[in-house]
Amino acid sequence: MPITSKSFVRSTALMLLVGLLALLGIVGTNVWLVERSQGYFDEVIEARIIRRSVIDLRAMVQDIETSQRGYIITLDDAYLEPYELALPQVRGELERLKTLLAPYPTTAPQLAQLEQDIDFKLTEMAETIELARQGRVEEAVAQVRTDRGKAAMDGARAFFAQFLQAIDDQLSEGVRNQTATTDALRWVSLGGGIIILIVVCGAIWTVLRYTQELGAARREVEAANASLEDRVRERTSDLGKANEEIQRFAYIVTHDLRAPLVNVMGFTSELETSVAALRTYMDGKPYEDNPAFVEAKQAATEDLPEAIGFIRAATRKMDGLINAILKISREGRRQLKPEQLDLEEIVTASAAAIHHQIAEKQGKVSTDIRASKLVGDKLSLEQILGNLLDNAIKYQHPERPLHLDIRSRHVPGNRITIEVADNGRGIAAGDHERVFELFRRSGAQSQPGEGIGLAHVRTMARSLGGDISLTSQLGAGTTFTINLPRDVRTYLGNSDQ
């Protein structure tokens, strides 16, 4: 069963989700197990420190007791050296042990008993050693034989033995817990790794299968495109021929319309001359109170001149429209001449051509040309920029100096954009596309024109393989954006590079 794009996305997302959950599970479990192992490790370290303190305290007490007995038996001061060395340390070690066992309140009674036994034993040893020093050895021996010191020492030994056994049991338990935690960590990592490996293998298999199906589909599309390109080439050729026929037809029609228009304009001139003579004649005639004479004089001096004026205005308008159609027709039939161009030079020259008009209106022109080199038709590009700059001057906002900003930059698809921005009166939103139509204008018609400028600009831009669009806000200015190929020869199908 073929893998569809939708099923591929679903299966890939599912596998990624499973892999993510497995990874999160592994990370979370590992963190928990590591924290748990660290806890056991801290307990073992703490138990070893307490065990070391207990052993040190026991050794000190035993050294003191041995030193006491040796001195009483021999009265040799050398036996007192361990006693005198360990005696000041016993109290410090006992306090250290109490500090270490402070977090364990259950040991407080046993620790209090140990302190009491050690205090009693230290007092007993101090008394017997003092008696021996005074030569009262028999009294010292008698005091030792009361076994009260021995009972205290036996109690301390019992505490040491029991406590060390409890600590050894705790250490063994901690080691076992650490071992179990390490084993669990190993198994979790192994299991999670297996799950992730399965997910990765599944994803690789899905991707490979989908890639194979995409390759097969691409080959089918390429096979279809091979015939499609032939059909497109054929249709393009037909369209080009049809466009040439339309342009030829427009040229013929406008040329044929011009002949009768010239006749009308000529006869209008003759009629105007005749009416002028008639008006002179009528003005020279004395006034007659005759309705026919009054009507004839009014026709000769008022009605006919006014009608001729209307005819002349209409013929001039029609002549302008015919010239506009002819201009666009000629532009469409003009052979483009691709050449290496420097856009910055063309922009600079176009701005210089309107410098005096900008200066008169206290305006300025700024440029930011980031894409300068291109292959195109210089005349078309100069006419496009010239029309846009002339429009900016013509439709300047009356309440502020004109500011023109010309920019260019590279865009994807091996193309460039040229932006011509002004702070003029702007174009209403409903007219953004309308202004590119032939004989259509926007806003108040306070400036002369036939409405062919932007239509001509769009025709030239499209002949170069590009297009033009605008963004504008009424009262805030307009930005025209021209999108062109960097090499017009790719659009024209010219392989000469």
Structural notes for this entry:
With 497 residues, the chain is of the alpha+beta class. The protein folds into 3 domains: 206 residues, Four Helix Bundle (Hemerythrin (Met), subunit A) (Up-down Bundle), CATH 1.20.120; 92 residues; 157 residues, Heat Shock Protein 90 (2-Layer Sandwich). The chain has 11 helices and 7 strands. It has a 5-stranded mixed β-sheet. A two-stranded antiparallel sheet has the order 1-3. It is rod-shaped. The model has no long low-confidence stretch (mean pLDDT 78).
Structure characteristics:
3 domains, alpha+beta, two-stranded antiparallel sheet, single chain, 497 residues, Four Helix Bundle (Hemerythrin (Met), subunit A), 10% strand, Heat Shock Protein 90, five-stranded mixed sheet
SSE run: HHHHHHEHHEEHEEHEEH
Task: Give the proportion of residues in helices.
Answer: over 70%
CATH topology of the largest domain: Four Helix Bundle (Hemerythrin (Met), subunit A)
Strand order of the largest sheet: 2-4-5-7-6
Overall body shape:
rod-shaped
Estimated share of beta-strand residues: 5-15%
Taking the alpha carbons of the first and last residues, their distance comes to 48 Å
What is the radius of gyration?
A: 55 Å
CATH architect. name of the largest domain: Up-down Bundle
Strands, count: 7
Give a quick precis of the structure.
With 497 residues, this protein is of the alpha+beta class. It has helices at residues 5-74, 80-100, 108-133, 137-145, 148-284, 291-333, 343-353, 355-360, 378-394, 453-463, 488-492; strands at 338-342, 364-369, 373-377, 403-411, 415-422, 467-473, 477-485. α3 (108-133) packs antiparallel against α4 and α3 crosses α5.
